[in-house]
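We treat protein structure as text, and this decision shapes the records that our systems exchange. We quote a single record here, exactly as it is kept in our systems:
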Amino acid sequence: MRKRGRPLLLTLLALAVAACEPAPPAHESDIRFRQAATVRSGQLDEISGLAASRHTAGVLWVHNDDGHARVHAVGADGADRGHVDIIDGVNVDWEDMTRIPGPEGDILVLADIGDNDAARSRVWLYLVDEPEPGDDGRFSGEVPVRNWISLQYPDGPRDAESIAWDPLGQRLLILSKRDTPPRLYALDGVVAAEAPEAELSFLGVVDSLRPPATEDLRVFGPRSRYVSQPTGLDISPDGRRAAIITYRSLYLYDLGEADSWREGFRSEPLEVLGPPRDNEEAVTWSADGSGLWVSAEGENAPIWEFRGVD
């Protein structure tokens, strides 16, 4: 395979980390987590999924993790751009979303994969065509489900909050949350788009997330036991970079010489502390892959922009 240079984002970030140290996190003061906006929709109080639109500039698609089967459009400035209801959708525990490039436009994948007690025999994905704005630039109305697919894990129920489209492997990746270490599963893109049900394929574990430390107990208190659990995942549009968000840190991976993300997630990531809250639940690459957006649970949630360091 032809050797590739490290993406600019990771190259810049690596300057903040001493090469001789065994994967220490970059310090918050070295990192450009900028609060770009505050979400101004009163309907969004538990954001758990985030996807940047490639077709409507400045729009981020988001959803709550329960309640209405609905996607909201939020501007990069936090403005409420409206919402669209999903016909035949059911929101039991929507925990993440991603997008699949389609022949006539992107397809949003809404992942009803949350399962705190690991008790659901099946979880669901809802695939819908990305909605179009009205003449006023706002989104409204309803959109039918293009396909909904029932999924089972090959090794029993799992709680998961992370899904991403892998453009190189042409498949969806789901990363479990409460397993130690998290477990990675895959679903072929054609199967996701057409089949009514399927069994996920187990790819392996992701054992590169740093476990809780003494400092975490001081910062997070009783929540420190959860700080290494993944709450969001996304892969860059070119398929070469991946981001995992946890309550404590952002982890950045470079595919490098690996042939697939099954191997890519075995590499040592760059860990970045932050953003400076303890309930980040959603991450997405920007439409052009030049940076990341992160958001969190709670009313008036922040929208963080991540662009690296000077």
